[in-house]
Q: What sequence folds into this?
């Protein structure tokens, strides 16, 4: 199996290092619009081959799997081309540049016969899976609230300073991880994961904290049909400080408290336990790539379904609409994901 990366940026380098360290039975190639950059990348990582254009890689019969790791502005067009050539596809997050692209492409992606996945590593991290298993224990009672906080000043270089290539803000580019984490936890208590959020009310500071286009900080409160309240606080403008990135699941008979980066955690109430971190693959990238390669080999779908990623995008869209209107809003869920939420 050959995996060809479209785009020679920092995330591609990270993925390649992880795949090589795992020793997965694949060959790797790189495609860049810059010939010398593609060649240097091939030489640096001892890759199988390189391509001096995206189209050359997509057209190549040697490319079994395409990893779309360009800025989001190019994702939709590359997804279309990849599907036209019947390639297996893995798309970096955020999967789309806009909510309009989700409405235009989402249904075709769900119906696509070959493998297609989004590289959302947080879904695969063992710490997140451990918390979800513990939440299924009925002894904790009913859920009350789930709070996810993630601060961290980010370098905004190159296209991340361009409002044309980054038209929405930090919640779109980086916050998608933490939206997924919030909704992945709330889904434990929901009957229908695509009708779980009844309303979202989101806010941003009156004055930005950085040069990030449109927004660098969002505070969102969501009401869920299970009865719990969700709270997301994401910022690229606030520094990481001691105990700033603390997340919490409040249950009727106890709490789960943990660090957003999976460094530590504990539960108290029904059971008092230390939640040990998973040092070897704390971010979940290794588990994600193992699942991708095994799923392609077996002709199966990935552990993280596209429907879940698309619903995360609906939540993000609701946050931006709420900020624009200064009012709580319902999610605009496309019909191919189920009936729209209302509230």
A:
């Amino acid at each position: 199996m050959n995996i060809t990366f479209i785009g020679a940026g920092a995330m591609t380098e990270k993925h390649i290092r992880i795949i090589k360290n795992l020793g997965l039975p694949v060959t790797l190639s790189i495609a860049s619009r810059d010939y010398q950059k593609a060649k240097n990348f091939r030489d640096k990582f001892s890759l199988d081959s390189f391509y001096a254009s995206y189209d050359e890689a997509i057209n190549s019969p040697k490319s079994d799997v395409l990893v779309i790791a360009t800025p989001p502005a190019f994702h939709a067009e590359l997804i279309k081309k990849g599907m036209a050539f019947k390639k297996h596809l893995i798309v970096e997050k955020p999967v789309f540049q806009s909510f309009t692209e989700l409405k235009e492409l989402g249904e075709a992606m769900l119906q696509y016969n070959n493998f297609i996945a989004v590289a959302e590593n947080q879904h695969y991290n063992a710490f997140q899976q451990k918390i979800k298993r513990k939440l299924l224990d009925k002894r904790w009672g009913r859920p009350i609230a789930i709070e996810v906080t993630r601060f961290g000043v980010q370098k905004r270089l190159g296209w991340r300073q361009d409002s044309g290539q980054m038209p929405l803000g930090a919640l779109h580019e980086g916050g998608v991880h933490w939206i997924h984490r919030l909704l992945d936890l709330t889904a434990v208590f929901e009957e229908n994961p695509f009708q779980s959020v009844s309303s979202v009310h989101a806010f941003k500071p009156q004055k930005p904290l950085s040069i990030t286009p449109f927004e660098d900080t969002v505070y969102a409160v969501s009401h869920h049909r299970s009865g719990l309240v969700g709270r997301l606080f994401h910022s690229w403008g606030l520094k990481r400080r001691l105990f700033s990135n603390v997340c919490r699941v409040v249950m009727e008979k106890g709490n789960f408290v943990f660090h957003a980066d999976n460094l530590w955690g504990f539960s108290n109430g029904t059971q008092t336990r230390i939640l040990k971190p998973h040092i070897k693959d704390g971010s979940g990238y290794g588990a994600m790539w193992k699942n991708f390669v095994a799923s392609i080999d077996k002709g199966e779908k990935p552990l993280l379904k596209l429907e879940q990623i698309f619903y995360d995008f609906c939540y993000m869209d609701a946050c931006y609409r709420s900020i624009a209107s200064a009012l709580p809003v319902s999610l605009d869920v496309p019909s191919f994901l189920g009936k729209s939420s209302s509230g």
Summary: The mean pLDDT is 93. The longest helix spans residues 306-325.
